[in-house]
Request: fold
Amino acid sequence: AQKVTQAQTEISVVEKEDVTLDCVYETRDTTYYLFWYKQPPSGELVFLIRRNSFDEQNEISGRYSWNFQKSTSSFNFTITASQVVDSAVYFCALSEARGGYQKVTFGTGTKLQVIP
Amino acid sequence: GAGVSQSPSNKVTEKGKDVELRCDPISGHTALYWYRQRLGQGLEFLIYFQGNSAPDKSGLPSDRFSAERTGESVSTLTIQRTQQEDSAVYLCASSSGPLAYNEQFFGPGTRLTVL
Reply:
């Protein structure tokens, strides 16, 4: 069965510190996708990144970077030089194909608080 | 273009009453999801519509919950005989298809409070 674990419930950092949000997943599929979403205090979830199971290249987008390691079933998210605007709940999700349907499993989220 | 919209944004009801929540997905999106998010919790999958196929209802917590979707447009989530434990934010999301790589676009949610 598919499962996504975000063991860190809440993290607090001081502005400009780097922070890594962990995501560990379980699946029996060889083809799947991993996502990160951000839910700011306003409440609306926003898509951040997608990664397919065959692409283990790390990705960097500005202050954000993602490290996908199939060997440890992890897809971690690092924010460099954090800012107050990064304060949000971050969700990791696993997506698989199921007979014409998309099966998406979300983690429980990590609440990040960036203190000025 | 317009994103996913939901109405009402807030709903306060008395225990035992029925409520209906509405979701307007992004035009052209064939997939539509409903989730429940209790205060400080993660997303709990409720139901998934994909085009004209039979919906995946595996997440509905009880037979008091039901949902409909007209073609590839509006969806309504109905909760009958509401209970206090139904209090939560109900999120709707849509995506452009059933493939595993499709990201979801979320609405702002409906905050339901059952007194």
About this structure: Chain B touches chain A through 28 residues (CB under 8 Å).
